[in-house]
Design brief:
Rossmann fold, about 60% helix, 9 helices, 5 strands, alpha/beta
């Protein structure tokens, strides 16, 4: 079983690349954003809490996110060859807890962190476009977008050093055409597979 993390700021193209990787490598895409939106639609207890935090541009509590991740991993179809995590982990504490979760359940670890690197100005442009196309209310406010970018820089970017120290971090230019980004990611994944 392989465990990949697709990393980058909001609007970097993580969801697009994840969809392509799922098809090519028979991975299961786990997007914490998608899982949380499902909970919000159901108006579950988790969904109500998450909605309030997301609308302010804040992160949802680690314990809630980790429980959702654990459940998806444990209930995955046996035909799945691995997982691609999108939007998780977001903090050092989540990364450490995720390492413990993988060791406890599968005695495995993260294989690679595929990091899409994109400038802030392009991120704002992409998120605005996504809001128009998908009608996502959480993407429509410029204040929320800027808060999410700022939160990413402050809380999530420290993960770069965390995964670099472990030899798991692979940067990828995220401002290229979708096909070129995908090709670069595949080259990295193939080189890891052959190690």
């Amino acid at each position: 079983m392989k465990y990949y993390i697709i990393f980058g700021p909001p609007g970097a193209g993580k969801g697009t690349q994840s969809s392509l990787l799922v098809e090519k490598y028979k991975l299961k895409h786990i997007s914490t954003g998608h899982l949380l939106r499902e909970e919000i639609e159901k108006m579950s207890e988790v969904g109500i809490i998450a909605k309030g935090l997301i609308e302010k541009g804040s992160f949802v509590d680690d314990s809630i996110v980790l429980e959702m991740i654990r459940k998806v991993i444990c209930e995955a179809d046996p035909s799945v060859m691995g997982f691609i995590f999108d939007g998780f982990p977001r903090t050092i504490s989540q990364a450490k807890a995720f390492d413990q979760l993988l060791q406890f359940h599968k005695k495995r670890s993260v294989n690679a962190v595929l990091s899409l690197e994109v400038d802030d100005s392009l991120i704002v442009e992409r998120i605005n476009k996504r809001a128009e196309i998908e009608g996502r209310r959480d993407d429509s406010s410029i204040e929320t977008i800027l808060c999410r970018i700022q939160t990413y820089h402050k809380k999530t970017e420290p993960l770069i050093a965390y995964y670099k120290e472990r030899g798991k971090y692979f940067p990828i230019k995220g401002d290229l055409p979708v096909e070129d980004i995908f090709k670069n990611i595949c080259q990295i994944m193939e080189s890891i597979k052959n190690e």
